[in-house]
Amino acid sequence: MSELDAVVIGAGPAGEVCAGRLAENGLEVTLVERELVGGECSYYACMPSKALLRPGDLVDEVHRIPGVRLDTPPLDVPAVLARRDEVIHDRDDSGQLPWLESRGVTLLRGQARLEGERRVRVGDEVLEARRAVVVATGSSSSLPPIPGLAEAAPWTNREVTTASAIPGRLLALGGGVVGVEMAQAYATLGASVAIVEALPRLIAREEEFASMEVQDGLRAAGVEVHVDAKATKVSRGEKQVSLELETGETLVGDELLVAIGRRPNTADLGLEAFGVDPGRPIEVDDRMRAGGSDWLYAIGDVNGRALLTHAGKYQGRVAADVILGGDARATSDGPMSPRVIFTDPSVAAVGHTLASAREAGMEVRAVDVPTSSVAGGSFYGRGAAGTSRLVVDEGRGVLVGATFTGPDVAEMLHGATIALVGEVPLDRLFDAIPSFPTRSEVWLRLLEKYGL
């Protein structure tokens, strides 16, 4: 048995941040990983998906600029896939190890399982944690109980982001972030794509105008969009997969992507003894402590608060600071977290939508302006669709939500995040002068429209 200060189970972004911060502050830490250091985001989600999307973004932007020409065809698909493989280091995590070593974190590979309070077994080795055990095992794609789906060998986010070739026809089941991003990427790379969403609109948690603009953008890219459409049966033949809809229509493709949700990786960890049902999130307080425990923590997707890499990293820092004796609390994760969808147009949002703010009982007002309605729009995103919205709490005079749509709006989001988290009064924001001629002048237009 080995005794040490803390054991972190799961070496994705959340676990890495937590383990690194603990070790930098003098604790003896072991990080346990059964697959790849870097986790889902590095190899099967955030990083490879953006590598597939970015070439199409550049092509679209070049088409908006008079005087710039592209070769035909504009994209070299094998080169795009090769660059994707470079971004994910061919799924080799050796490049991640120096970061851990430089901080004094011990890496132990294998399946971890809790054997008692503060005790973790990894193979034949048992680790006894003096201070804390942190669960950071992430989440996996879930399959709905549609007849024939499991037998049809569908793709999940893992297969769609790492495919060695682009199929001629792709069906995407689910109109959330993964579904719309991969529909965009594969259509740009030459596939015929159809996307199916059971709800009345795509990316249904975002503003309705964002859903409509993304839907229009996908259709302009050649994607066949089906909303308010329920899948009832899946079957795979020798050369194709068929997806039957409740309407009686049948869609046919070469591959089927299932992107309808995620489930926390809480099975096979021995968490049942601590009141956690396998496959369910681990409930935590704002200090990331599970069930009021003074030693068991859960961070990242596994606690279900916000299935976002940056939220998991934030929680990892909070958990580390609490373990180190601090009074840290997570207050900016959950539904209010900043989020970006890298379609064309892209969507960048933080905090409430207008609808969710009203559902929360707030007296709010929304102001909208076209994202390209400023001088900077002449040079970036010229003539492209896009809307910028602020959601204002009228009683307090502060932002409670913001959404920007348009080409490459992700970098516009952090200003809104700072204003929202800092509860900066709107009249004070008027003194934050945007530079000319940049697209950030959209802030001035929004504040002017509000009446400042």
Residue-averaged pLDDT, rounded?
A: 96
Q: What percentage of the residues does DSSP assign to strands (E)?
A: 15-25%
- Unreliable stretches: none
Class computed from helices, strands and strand pairing: alpha/beta
N-end to C-end Cα span: 65 Å
For the largest beta-sheet, the strand count, sense and barrel status come to: 7 strands, mixed
Query: Using DSSP, what is the number of strands?
Result: 21
* Global morphology: globular
| Count, helices | 13
How are the SSEs ordered, and which strands pair?
Elements: E1 2-9, H1 13-24, E2 29-33, H2 39-44, H3 46-64, H4 77-87, H5 97-103, E3 106-109, E4 112-116, E5 119-122, E6 125-135, E7 139-141, H6 157-162, E8 169-173, H7 177-188, E9 192-196, H8 208-220, E10 224-226, E11 231-236, E12 241-245, E13 250-253, E14 255-258, E15 262-264, E16 296-298, H9 309-323, E17 339-341, E18 346-351, H10 354-359, E19 364-370, E20 387-393, E21 398-406, H11 413-421, H12 426-429, H13 442-450
Parallel strand pairs: 1-2, 1-6, 2-3, 6-16, 8-9, 8-14, 9-10
Antiparallel strand pairs: 4-5, 5-6, 7-15, 11-12, 12-13, 17-18, 18-21, 19-20, 20-21
Helix pairs in contact: 1-9, 3-4, 3-7
What does this structure look like?
With 452 residues, this protein is of the alpha/beta class. Helix content is 29%, strand content 24%. The strands form five sheets. Strands 1, 2, 3, 4, 5, 6 and 16 form a seven-stranded mixed sheet that branches. It has a five-stranded antiparallel sheet with strand order 17-18-21-20-19, with helices on both faces. A four-stranded parallel sheet has the order 10-9-8-14. Helix 1 runs parallel beside helix 9 and helix 3 packs across helix 7 (177-188). The termini are far apart.
